[in-house]
Amino acid sequence: MRGLELVRHADRVEAAIESGQAAKSALVASWRRSSKLHHLDPAGARPPMRLSDGELREARERIAPLLRAAQPSMDRLYQAVGAAGCCVLLADRDGIPLERRGCPADDHTFEDWGLWTGAVWSEQREGTNGIGTCLVEQRPLTIDRDQHFFTRNTALSCTAVPIYDAHAQLAGVLDVSSCRADRTDAFASLILLAAGEASRRIEAELFRDTFAKARIVLTPSTEVHGSGLLAIDGDDLVIGATRAARLALGMAPDRPLRPVPAADLLCGSEPRTEHLGDAERATVQRALARAQGNVSAAAKALGVSRATLHRKLNRFGLKAH
User: Fold this and answer.
1) Are both 52 and 197 inside the same structural domain?
2) CA 142 to CA 180: how far, in whole Å?
3) Element spanning 108, H or E
4) Which structural domain, as residue segments, surrounds residue 234?
5) In the predicted structure, residue 225 carries a pLDDT above the cut 80
6) How many helices (H) and strands (E) does the chain have?
7) What is the pLDDT of residue 63?
């Protein structure tokens, strides 16, 4: 029976590839890449390739900041889905899971399937699968059972979402996988939602760690991209932006970010002409605000005399409160 199942799935995959459906179906396009580009056989039975212990340590060291940022969100996500027989995996951009959460009672099953740290789940090695195909297409997706390229993976249901680093570059994938046959479409949708929220929390934590000395500003939420984060330095220049923020503000996500005045980026208008007097006026206002309107304290903070500060207040038309 198993042999017949292997043949049927392999035949269905190959028939879909030859039918020309790749132009209309993202799934079939992935199957086609697996077959034609990576020269894989859907009936192939070899297990996933695994890194050595030394290679695994080196891979973890390369993404240590991401692993640190991901710990709390992976814990929360596993608490939500673990009781339903799911494991949670964090893979790097090469498709290698480097961190995992799972129920000890299910560990043997998942390890046999290769859903384990150090296994290689790139599309190049494993054909169409949640982690590998998510990396290629850079979008949230679910590869459910017989949507996998290899017949040996058709017992798996895998939901994956991409994770971007603080510079808007693809950093890895957060994956929730199950070997249970009773996972419904409705539950898969809930998993996709939960995984998406977890990935955004990981990105935010990584961004804050990267720009720990900057002021972090939340950008307005959009229906398509949601809200993002900006890092603004002491000179009011935007020095960092998450991928969501770049897309929402019309910035190219794949180009290095050059510092830009926060007001120019957030006000949605043409950059305004500035004068040195504007900067001095703003400095005086900030000093007064910090001193809660106390002119003597503000003057001391600015390193000028009280009389000098009064002259500046008169020149700028400002009043101490």
Assistant:
1) yes
2) 15
3) helix 107-113
4) 212-266
5) no
6) 13, 9
7) 96
